[in-house]
């Protein structure tokens, strides 16, 4: 620089200064950019890099299984194949100008393999997404066709198709307990019944799998599932007994067909702990094919449908009055010879009488007698008594859509005629489950229990997470009053009671019939053509094991009374259930339960059990009240009751009349029993009762 011209040297220094300045400025820009990228926006760039490097898969756990009380599966999840598509992988490497043609070609090939419309497949490919369902729950033939499409030996193999294992809800017993159990939608969510109510327990918690992926986005290394417990939801054990449920649904369906009823409901419970052993609703449906079922058939009528209870509510009207000591158990009440006017309404009795005891009021189902007892009790105390028995409130059962029923539809205290009507079951509404739990309070000594449907919940390893214990909601009546009511209710099923069709040979049955008129929506008045027939009771009366409620909506076929329609269903269910539980009638030989177990190993367990119990019932020695003397000589003017078992109504009546007897027919179907029994010697012209039952 010393040898240079001063002007030139100065210019060089200026240029070097400018160059250094520019370099410094550029370095500043680089450092500033690096600071922004690594410090200010560092987290965002890190997340982007992780998303590009890693692949995250959400793992949906296997849905838990629903079992009955004995461990028999009622609802379970099985893995079925479904087909998904990675459209990015399918179209990778194809030039943009050829994409429309290739998309159309691939769409047609895939559509043919999966039996789908080609336009639907083309539309899904055109979205160019990493994951999209093509078809869920495919057949084995479709799986084979998809595998053939991906064969690399072809000139143009179809890439990006994945055969995914997907959980599918399966109900092995088909229609058994359909309205109770509910169903699961394709997205894995419970929609109705227990599947909806227990969805949180059954679904479990979803987990996430992370791993590295290649440039095509395929998972090449997995870190594993973080929580092994998330692989399966919790298993639920119900108090339902599959064998009893099977019997209940068979008998209910038979009664529905025989009497052409529009609907029906049956609940069977253990009165000692409130456990629900069976809950049937008809018509039902198959949860495996819920999409083709009638929405009305998916309704659980036991908890959703409200109905006027009719005479069954008299149990609780009279029970409340006895507990309040407003009526003496031995008192006789004048029943106005069948007609009594209250304000501008006349109350009638089906069996007109002058004086009746409280027990006779129950056994003959006197509306007038019950109304007078209610007047002595008072409107407020009658209402409070109904509330203590659980009416007008939910029962607490873990099922969606439970109705509370209605006690005061107008939202005010009852006037006189409304008090009378409520006492014998008009102007109020209840559910079948409410009726069952209220009768269970009579059977167990006065304690109103909360119904138990879920016995316990376990995790995938069998560890018990929760277990339900019996819970007493309140004391409905005193134990002594409950015992007194039990004895009174036995009179309903004996002698001249309205519920003799519910009598089970060898057992004392306590119960009450109900025949309630329905209101015509068009006129707002009670109709003479549509009824609700019901029977609720427990057996054995001295040591109750079962409480059974039977409700049939709008029975036809020439009869509609609770005593002739619902009571026989109660008897058949009670007979089967008692033998199934090992409770044998007096004078019979106990059936070996090992026989039931051995037979149940072959074929469907419920069907095998039902057949064994039917055979045992037929083989058991009958318990009869009369003296059968088939070989006793007959005197002049006497005749012998013929054996007409199994004959239809017309033939049985004709044969009994030809034998010189005066037959009275009860029920429909074929002859089940005669009172007095066959072989009994009677004076000619004597009355005999012929009891018919529909074929099961």
From TrEMBL:
- Could you list this entry's UniProt keywords, alphabetically sorted: Carboxypeptidase, Hydrolase, Membrane, Protease, Transmembrane, Transmembrane helix
**Molecular function terms in GO for this entry?**
carboxypeptidase activity; penicillin binding
Localization, UniProt? Membrane
Entry GO CC: plasma membrane
Q: Which residues cross the membrane?
A: 12-31
Name the record gives this protein: PASTA domain-containing protein
The reply to whether Transport figures as a keyword in the UniProt entry is: no
According to its UniProt entry, the protein's GO biological process terms are: cell wall organization
- Looking at the record, the residues that make up the PASTA domain are 635-694
Q: What is the lineage of its organism?
A: Bacteria, Pseudomonadati, Myxococcota, Polyangia, Polyangiales
Record carries keyword rRNA-binding: no
